[in-house]
Amino acid sequence: MKKIKLFLLLPLLILSFAFIQGKVFENPEKLVNNHEEHYYSMEDFATVRKFDIHIHLNTEEEFFMEQAQEDNFRFLDIIDDRPFGVPMKKQQKIANGHLKHFSKNMALATTFSVKDWGKANWAKNTLKNLEKSLSEGAVAVKIWKNIGMDLRDENGDFVMVDDEQLDPILDYLIENNIPLLGHNGEPRDCWLPLEEMTFSQGYYGAHPEYHMYLHPEYPSYQDQIDARDNMLEKHPELTFMGAHLGSLEWSLDELAKRLDKFPNMYVDLTRLSNLQFHTFNDRQKTRAFFIKYQDRLIYGTDSQINPTKDPEAFKKSIHDRWISEWKFYVTDEEIRLANFGTLSGLKLPTEVVDKIYSKNALRLLGLQNW
């Protein structure tokens, strides 16, 4: 009789188990809702230790370091091989100078030049220069959008980030557990007509020379993404952080596909307007994305710290930006998104905020004991 009752109950047990599983995984937010959640407030801003993963120091002045200390921020200074602004060597000199005096507040990401690309000794010399920068305190390496959008080979073809000549560099980074930071391509808006853009109409309208929609002879947006993905497929052990939401700022679904496919991939959160736009359209989906991928997202601003005649005003602008973005992540207060309307902040749990604002960056850079 007991066996018959058990036999009759078995289908109900199976259905109950399936129902519970479905409820648990239907929304990633519930993965953190199985215990009491805690939240930060605006008043906690000054006391929580934070990290900005995307800063560019273009001056020897120290006002930014002063503000970072006041606001309890540490940060990563990133050097670029860019053809405008402060040259790469001067960026390195500025960074090394600050690093000597503020080693407890800042970390450094170096880069490499493509000036002698195609020459037989390019990889050897590049590795030599990287070794020197790393020995002087750099903890990461940046690859910039000039590879994919400017650099050409001897045949006049664009060099992409999956080019085999970069393989020795990437292999070296893997062997030495050095993360690669990648700014690949531009926002997808750059390849769209002005009327289809989300945020960039003003800039590309004023600078048609940079508007790739008008220059079909250049690699497409998808070419940039495909080359980056292929680079990661070729080097699955490479620790990689995609700047600007991995150049997938327009779609959380597309970004999620990459985070699922590449377990060593992180992204920084420097295109905040896109994140707020996603929140404006679907707050629940955006918040669920943050909770599901809480170990792979890193706070950053992409702030350019330039010389100024009014350091106090500059410091205030930095502070105001950090405060404004803190509000978006830790509260559900109303936020206005220009040209669209109002949205509510994400109000993420403290454990998620701690990861996004510090723990993930320190893990990426190998600075857990810093």
> Could you list the spans in which at least 5 consecutive residues all have pLDDT below 50?
1-26, 28-32
Query: Level of helix content?
Result: 40-55%
Radius of gyration from CA coordinates:
23 Å
Strand content: 5-15%
Strand order of the largest sheet: 8-7-6-5-4-3-2-1-9
Mean pLDDT: 92
Q: From the coordinates shown, what is the CATH architecture? A: Alpha-Beta Barrel
- How do the SSEs run, as a string of H and E? HEHEHEHEHHEHHEHHEHHEEHEEH
Shape: globular
Structural class: alpha/beta
Descriptive notes:
Keywords: Lyase. One of its GO terms (molecular function) is carboxy-lyase activity. Pfam families: Amidohydro_2. The chain is globular. It has one domain (41-317, 349-364): TIM Barrel (Alpha-Beta Barrel). A hairpin with a 3-residue loop joins strand 10 and strand 11. Helices cover 44% and strands 13% of the residues. The chain is an alpha/beta fold and 370 residues long. A nine-stranded parallel beta sheet has the order 8-7-6-5-4-3-2-1-9. Strands 10-11 form a two-stranded antiparallel ribbon. Helix 2 (63-70) packs parallel to helix 13 and helix 11 crosses helix 12.
Keywords:
single chain; alpha/beta; disordered N terminus; 11 strands; 9-stranded parallel sheet; two-stranded antiparallel ribbon; TIM Barrel; 14 helices; 370 residues
